[in-house]
């Protein structure tokens, strides 16, 4: 298999997926989104496994990556439905934080063009936790659409990875079969 083949393309796609997953992981950590943090962590591990399998001509590793790519598409479809309030899901629920905290997407307060203002509590009210109310105004794009764009990009790259992984597995097994016939 030459370097300008599907194998090199799959290596590029896996590398691209790693970059996108690491970027997403950073913003999920900033927003304390625990379910996406765990999903991204597994995604990074499986993509590295797929990358290793592609470089080392290991079709079983690539098959694991292929199965994960399909699951990753399903996860990102769920995220899109979650942020667009489809099917009884609500972006205002604590589902992605496992109900551990009241945090939401980091983009909800730090999106492009957003002006964030903290309103302190009344002077007579003393609270040991010192919570303040936050208002966000002037956002160029609502945070749920930023999250949907992230997930859409993940779906696009995962689908490309799935197709090229299937091609590479078939090419590797075909090469192995032709070597065994000789």
TrEMBL record:
InterPro entries: Na/K-Atpase_Interacting. Belongs to the NKAIN family. It comes from Menidia menidia. It is found in: Cell membrane. The keyword Hydrolase does not apply. The chain crosses the membrane at residues 37-55, 62-86, 153-172. The keyword Oxidoreductase does not apply. Residues 1-21 form the signal peptide. It is a multi-pass membrane protein. One of its GO terms (cellular component) is plasma membrane. It comes from the Eukaryota. One of its GO terms (biological process) is regulation of sodium ion transport. Pfam families: NKAIN. This is Sodium/potassium-transporting ATPase subunit beta-1-interacting protein.
């Amino acid at each position: 298999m030459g370097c300008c083949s599907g194998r090199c393309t799959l290596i590029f796609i896996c590398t691209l997926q790693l970059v996108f997953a690491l970027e997403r992981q950073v913003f999920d950590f900033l927003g304390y989104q625990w379910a996406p943090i765990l999903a991204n962590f597994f995604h990074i591990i499986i993509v590295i496994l797929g990358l290793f399998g592609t470089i080392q001509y290991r079709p079983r590793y690539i098959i694991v990556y292929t199965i994960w790519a399909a699951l990753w598409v399903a996860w990102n479809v769920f995220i899109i439905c979650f942020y667009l309030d489809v099917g009884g899901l609500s972006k205002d629920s604590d589902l992605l934080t496992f109900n551990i905290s009241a945090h939401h997407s980091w983009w909800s307060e730090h999106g492009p063009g957003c002006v964030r203002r903290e309103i302190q509590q009344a002077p007579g009210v003393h609270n040991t936790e010192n919570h303040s109310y936050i208002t966000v105004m002037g956002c160029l794009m609502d945070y749920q659409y930023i999250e949907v764009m992230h997930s859409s990009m993940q779906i696009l790259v995962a689908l490309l990875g799935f197709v090229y992984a299937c091609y590479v597995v078939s090419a590797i097994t075909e090469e192995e079969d032709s070597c065994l016939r000789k």
